[in-house]
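As the next step, I selected for study one protein, both as residues and as discrete backbone shape codes, as given directly below:
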Amino acid sequence: MTNMTSAKETVRVEADFAQAAAFPLVKKFGVYICTYVALERMLRDLELLHELKPCGVRYDPGWGFGNDDGPNSPREFNAPQISGTKDRLVFRFDEYDRLTGKLADEHVDIMYVHAYNPLPLQDPAKSAQADMNEHLQMRSNWNTMPVDMRAWERINYEYARRWKDKGWKVKYYEIWNEPDLQPVFFTGTKEQYFEIYKYGALGVKRADPEAKVGGPVLSSDLSWIGPFLDFVQKEGLPLDFFSYHWYGPAAKMVEDVRDILRRRPEMEGVEVILSEYNTYVPATPDFTTGGAIERYEAASFLLQEFKYFAEQPDIHSVYWAQYNDPEVFGEGVDRCGLIALDGRRKAAFNAFKIYADMPVERKRLTSHDDAIDGMAAAEDGRFCAVLWNRSDKEKTVELQLAGFALPQGRLKLYRIDADHASVFDRSKSDQLEVVEEIPLAGADACNWTGAIPAKGVVYAVVDDGAERTGRL
């Protein structure tokens, strides 16, 4: 990147496909499905999953929440999914089987969250926590410490054994979810969470030694990291991956976590996973109905963050939050899904799809204006460059594509802006569509010149015209 040009000048951008660039465009991005999505809608939306080619799908089952199909109520499968007593547990797997079977058919890595406290392990005593949960229309003490850790270990064992026996590989298991976000997801101490992790991890590994277990699934409180790792090391517990969450610009949080982990030699070889992430922050106007998260500008922010994470090789994977819109909060709250309630793709979905479509082998891209950023990649006769306008003003761009040799081919251009691939703006279609196509003959270079609106995206693909399965 170089200095800014004036708003009226044409910005020159060069994609040189003969020159390699650092940090390949690894497909390290997955999606997160929360417990606030009904099963039938999950299954419907999974039909679009192949368009994103995610590295994995993370799902939080919401044990102990209950489900009355009402507002602010989770959609726990077969609620109560776990019933009976702590000495005689009863499991209802049939709805969970439908999801797991579908995910296995999609051939994606599955990450299941083992949370929260199921009914048989809840202390029925009336408490301030129970009063708060009741006020929030939650009808149990799902966010409390299990009363019997051996029973908790058995629950973790039974689920991992279920999927292993059926031949449905679940690669990752997270033990609990955001225990530091108190009193929302946990009311106990960090030391109590460590016990939850211990018996959960041991239960999973006893059922499936090849499965990967991890935690502490933190929301923000980094003071938990040191004591958690001390506990794991002291107890000799398995820790195949370290996971945490973040919403908002990622760089500072990633660096803060990295600084802690790099001082721990035992973390060498342990995967670091950001198992919930979004550019936008919950409980802000951007995160709600009609907010930026639903509109075309979200596409450029997603691509900016994907580029950042592609350049962080110590981050093994990132799960975008969320795949589907939550359905239980009513109008105006948490419209963070890549897919809307009615099943339409949002602009951010289409940006994710562009990254998925791009080859892994990264090539040199040079922009002569800091407002225009992008990535280029090529392999097997396809040469791709995506650009986005980071500024608040429209920019005219001359994109120079060079360093390829095709006896014949074509340049196809796609857009994400208010009029294209963004149904919460003015677009009539929720899909990426070719808006310009230029035939090429005997070319080793070509140029495209056009406008990119503020926060808009353009995606240019040069290929030999051959049909390729799974490509745009």
Q: What stands out?
A: The longest strand covers residues 395-416. Residues 1-7 have pLDDT under 50 and may be disordered.
